[in-house]
Amino acid sequence: DQQVKQNSPSLSVQEGRISILNCDYTNSMFDYFLWYKKYPAEGPTFLISISSIKDKNEDGRFTVFLNKSAKHLSLHIVPSQPGDSAVYFCAASESGGSNYKLTFGKGTLLTVNP
Amino acid sequence: ETGVTQSPTHLIKTRGQQVTLRCSSQSGHNTVSWYQQALGQGPQFIFQYYREEENGRGNFPPRFSGLQFPNYSSELNVNALELDDSALYLCASSLTYGSWAYNEQFFGPGTRLTVL
């Protein structure tokens, strides 16, 4: 049973436009959400996170939006750059759990075309 | 600041053999988590170590075991390798203060294990 779902395996956008990556979750105990970017042959790189007490967090070109009632979050990249081309993983955790494991989605491959 | 390092980069083993993967955590971090990433999937949590003890385990059999050392580095051991164990193994480090922990985990480059 997948608790974190990224339903779009891939997304292609033009350089300079907005990229929107979506993520849904089913476990209502999740209260912290993270986005990671992964290039081939490298480990995932932490991008941005959001606590469930917020509905938006912004860091430069990256903004994450959280809709708790819909159990949905999205990552917006504006403007998109060719160097943003990578696989993006959504992850979730339960802060009050006995450990702080991350539960990941399957990822979305973002391609930014020049 | 030193990031998370893992060794070896690649490894080829045959079914039934045993393997040990190593990880050095990011400087200042005291918690290590291990994940398995199969092709086309997201990373799956194996277990986490804090204060040299296992601090939670995912849905993996006992032949997956680990250690954490006083310098916070860690090992992942897999016995009786199976073909399905072929995957990228990722180590992540983070910081824990007693019963409170940062959620952000920082990953190493991974070890690509191939079981023939």
What features would you describe in this structure?
The complex is a heterodimer of chains A (114) and B (116). Chain A has strands spanning 4-5, 10-14, 19-25, 32-38, 45-51, 56-59, 62-67, 72-77, 86-93, 103-104, 108-113. By secondary structure, chain A is mainly beta. In chain A, the strands form 2 sheets. In chain A, strands 2, 4, 5, 9, 10 and 11 form a 6-stranded mixed sheet that branches. In chain A, strands 1-3-8-7-6 form a 5-stranded antiparallel sheet, with no helix packed on it. The mean pLDDT of chain A is 94. Helices cover 0% and strands 53% of the residues of chain B. Chain B has no helices and 13 strands. In chain B, the strands form 3 sheets. In chain B, strands 2, 4, 5, 6, 9, 12 and 13 form a 7-stranded mixed sheet that branches. The chains are: A mainly beta (114), B mainly beta (116). Chains A and B meet through β4, β5, β9 and β10 of A and β4, β5, β9 and β12 of B.
What percentage of the residues of chain B does DSSP assign to strands (E)?
over 45%
**Largest interface chains and counts:** A-B, 26 and 29 residues
Q: Approximately how much helix is present in the residues of chain A? A: under 10%
> Gap between N and C termini of chain B, in Å?
38 Å
Q: Termini of chain A, distance in Å?
A: 38 Å
Strand content of chain A: over 45%
What does the average pLDDT of chain A come to? 94
Low-confidence stretches of chain B: none
Number of helices of chain B: 0
C-alpha-based Rg of chain A, rounded: 14 Å
Cα-atom Rg of chain B, whole angstroms? 13 Å
Topology pattern of chain B, helix = H, strand = E? EEEEEEEEEEEEE
Structural class of chain B: mainly beta
